[in-house]
Amino acid sequence: MINDHRDHANAAFQLLPALPICQTDLPLDWYQPAFRPYAEEYMALPDRLPETVLPWLDGYVRPAIDAFGDSLLLVAHYYMGGEIVKLVERYGGRVADSYELALQARRHPEKKLIVESAVHFMAEAIAILANDDQQVWITNPKAGCTMEMWAKDDMVLPIVDQLQERYGDELVVVAYMNTSGRLKALAGRTRGAVCTSSNAHQVMQWALRQGRRVLFLPDEHLGRNTARGLDVPSDEIVLLPDPRVGLARIDDRTIAGGLERLDRARVLLWGSSCGVHTIFTPEMVEWHRAQGRQVLVHPESPFDVVTAADGVGSTKYLWQRIMDAPAGTFFAVGTEGHFVRNARAQASARGVDVCHLAEVPGATQGGCGCATMSRNDPPHLAAMLDLLRRGEPPEINRVLPGDAVNERTMQRDRLDPEERATLTREARQAIERMIEIVESTP
């Protein structure tokens, strides 16, 4: 299948550095059986340089593009490794943050086949807003999210039942995009909304103005940073029981300050977080500032890091700050490692210096990348597109609203059509409410 696509490979040198396309090959047993022949071919290549990998990849991707034409859309998230980001762009796809990705099906009804190289909750968000004649496929169903893994519906719903018994309709759920469709539907049922890191302050402000009690799912740091940014006092913010401990009761023993403090709270935080963003410390911020760097961080970082930084915002915000900076600017960026490496490569050509916030003397986790995002690689992209072209795609790669996939076993719980229709309606309401809030805010 290594066809002669040298012209395409040569053109790609303008986009891809002369560095290995993949830093580390995944173990062969990490691939689905239908994907293993593609992985074996990839592993047999003599190196990972663009002039070697691109002709091999073209042999699968170009025929799929020719077969599906304008009905095919490839998408990836900013956090994907530079190789996938550049490859998706090279083949005419789109790279964006979670908000923009969620809107791709709605904005492009002519795209009937959407293939996503990112994580499952992002693909599911696209599917929730998709039309009936649009299909969403993920290159690797095992690409989940550790934050979302500690906020599964079977963990959250028992707590919500207790909160609703105590507070009734006063409770409103704000579900971060990093949740399953089942929790987005919960937000819809409570007349709440979905949010992203770029609009969490707008959505939470909207909820608080209703005089309701906000349950923010699932990231405690984004929830706390957003609430504090809206001047909610710290004693009116309560952290619910740690989901990793398995405590499913709300009482004086499991709530710091007891039920009396819970009743005073305006914002309730689920206790999940992103391991990529919790490695940062105020000491890292101060070290880089002493080196003359501006420090930018993602709002999933701890509160003391956010308050110490020079700027805080979503991946889109971080990217724009870096790309708009004049030559000679120095940044230390606290977010996912692949994003920082991609930004560094783009910015260096313009005389802007970018490094990862965790790159400090003595640090052992510098440049930490999202491990689950990295489960998507060139063999997964090649296999997914080729199997779709041949009419043999594994059904496990199809993403429908409400699908719950075990990231370890790859077992899937799929709702029946009636349940899926209900979930889609409720989750869509929550996402559309987010869009309405964002578009109506000056």
What does this structure look like?
- The chain is of the alpha/beta class.
- It has three domains: 6-144 and 373-408, 3-Layer(aba) Sandwich (Rossmann fold), CATH 3.40.50.10800; 148-274 and 420-440, NadA-like (Rossmann fold, 3-Layer(aba) Sandwich); 282-356, 3-Layer(aba) Sandwich (Rossmann fold), CATH 3.40.50.10800.
- 43% of the residues lie in helices and 13% in strands.
- It has 19 helices and 15 strands.
- The strands form four sheets. A five-stranded parallel beta sheet has the order 6-5-7-9-8. The chain has a four-stranded parallel beta sheet with strand order 2-1-3-4, sandwiched between helices.
- Helix 2 (36-44) packs across helix 18 and helix 3 (50-68) packs parallel to helix 18.
- The N and C termini lie far apart (53 Å).
- Mean pLDDT is 87; it is low at 1-23.
Pick out its properties.
single chain, 442 residues, alpha/beta, Rossmann fold, 3 domains, 5-stranded parallel beta sheet, 4-stranded parallel beta sheet, 19 helices, 43% helix, disordered N terminus
Helicity, in percent?
A: 40-55%
Strand proportion: 5-15%
Provide the CATH superfamily of the largest domain.
NadA-like
Shape: globular
Radius of gyration: 22 Å
CATH C-level class of the largest domain is Alpha Beta
Distance, first to last CA: 53 Å
Q: State the CATH topology of the largest domain.
A: Rossmann fold
The number of distinct β-strands equals: 15
Average pLDDT, to the nearest integer?
87
Q: How many helical elements?
A: 19
As residue ranges, the low-confidence spans are 1-23
The side-by-side strand order for the widest beta sheet comes to 6-5-7-9-8
CATH-derived architecture of the largest domain: 3-Layer(aba) Sandwich
